[in-house]
Amino acid sequence: MESAITAGKAVPLPLPFMHFAPMSPLKPDPLSGQSLVVLGAGYVGEAVCREGLRRGMRVHALTRNADRAARLQAMGVKSVVAQLDQSDWHDALPPDADCSLNCVSSGGGGTDAYRTSYVQGTRSILEWGKRTVTPGLLIYTSSTSVYAQGDGARIDEEATAEGSGETGPILLEAEALTRSWAGSTAVVRLAGIYGPGRHQMLDQLRNGARVLPGRGDHRLNLIHRDDIVGAVFRIWECQRGKSGSWLYNLADNDPRPKAEVATWLARRLGVETPTFSETPAPGRRRLVPDRIILNSRIRTELGWSPVYPTFREGYEALLGA
Ligand SMILES: NC(=O)c1ccc[n+]([C@@H]2O[C@H](COP(=O)([O-])OP(=O)(O)OC[C@H]3O[C@@H](n4cnc5c(N)ncnc54)[C@H](OP(=O)(O)O)[C@@H]3O)[C@@H](O)[C@H]2O)c1
Q1: Which domains, and CATH codes, for the chain?
Q2: What pLDDT is recorded for position 26?
Q3: For 157-176, b where at least 16 C-beta lie within 10 A, e where not — what string?
Q4: How far is CA 238 from CA 31, 60, 87, 115, in A?
Q5: What is the pTM of this model?
Q6: pLDDT given at position 285
Q7: I need a labelling partner for 67 at 20 to 30 A (CA). Which of 8, 167, 272, 298 fits?
Q8: Can you tell me which atom of ligand 1 is nearest the CA of 193?
């Protein structure tokens, strides 16, 4: 029976370890047989693990959640249950993996949790990396919240990132730390994530909300979970084996005002079109600024393009599912 490692201790799991076959025997996947480590596997990280397995990679993951570890293990992922910011996992995962992803989140906590997950977590990754002379390409999923601009600004990767609010500077510190990884690195600044099982506005409207938080005229910068997965694999395919440090924004092709998204969804659901409170969402101190996050760098440099280019395709797929 397979087991997950809990801070050094083996925990037996009920489901058998599953081996997997390469995607196509006719055209081998360039990542097939490579090793992948996903650190802080949650919503995005689990989807990356699944895609890594599908592509024939040897996949390892760190999560602090024992249930998720069991699920990953059952899929065929070698899983470790640990806090990223601690060091008890350093012996359990291969620091010379060809491809690594740090996609830890703050876990919903305040600034202390941000510091623990992003800054202490990245410091822990750097310590882990010192155990090898052959570090691979590390990707870190940062956030477009590192940009403070509003007023309809168009934001590419050359835009100033001053780190808005209390948490923006923490994310910027984690980005800077990531760049000191001994191998190559890519920082990917993500817009608001949505996808299967994560569709807040859809849920609000389905549950009868008639007034939504925020401003209807502010653009909603979104990225579908599966397009994040596609982008990180594209980065590994194109940049693995090269030395460098890359930075990419990741959003869909056409951020639309929140009111347009809400009106479209309300029509599709057959409910009343909502209005907006013009106040921040619960738990947030300020409104999300109005800006357009541009994804042109990753599209032109790496040939990535989103499967869900606008909210319409993304929500259509979710409504159809
Ligand atoms: N959500 C968004 O719209 C958004 C926007 C921009 C950027 N991002 C970034 O995108 C990445 C992926 O986001 P996501 O939606 O997949 O996040 P997620 O679902 O919250 O997954 C992240 C995982 O990290 C775990 N975690 C938190 N602190 C940890 C620690 N100290 N040690 C080990 N694990 C820890 C969480 O565990 P628990 O489940 O136990 O809490 C969670 O499972 C994150 O880096 C996030 O910062 C997200």
Answers
A1: 3-199+221-255+291-311 (3.40.50.720)
A2: 67
A3: bebebebbeebbbbbbbbbe
A4: 11, 21, 31, 31
A5: 0.93
A6: 83
A7: 167
A8: 3
List the structure tokens of 268.
């599709």
Using most ligand atoms within 8 A of CB, pick from 104, 124, 144 the residue to mutate for ligand 1: 104
Cα dihedral across residues 202, 207, 211, 212: positive or negative: negative
Q: Which two tokens stand for residue 192?
A: 């608001």
| Average confidence (pLDDT) per 10 residues, the chain, 321 residues | 42 33 67 97 98 98 97 98 98 97 91 97 98 97 96 98 89 98 98 97 96 97 98 97 97 98 98 96 88 98 98 97 85
Which pLDDT belongs to residue 18?
30
Q: Among 233, 40, 228, 255, which residue's Cα sits nearest to residue 143?
A: 228
Separation of CA 63 and ligand 1 centre (Å): 10
Atom index in ligand 1 nearest the CA of residue 83 equals: 32
Q: What is the pLDDT of residue 85?
A: 98
Query: How many angstroms does the Cα of residue 118 sit away from the middle of ligand 1?
Result: 10
Instruction: Outline where DSSP puts E strands in the chain.
Output: 3-6, 9-12, 35-39, 58-63, 78-81, 99-102, 137-143, 153-155, 185-190, 192-194, 211-212, 219-220, 222-224, 245-250, 256-257, 275-276, 291-293
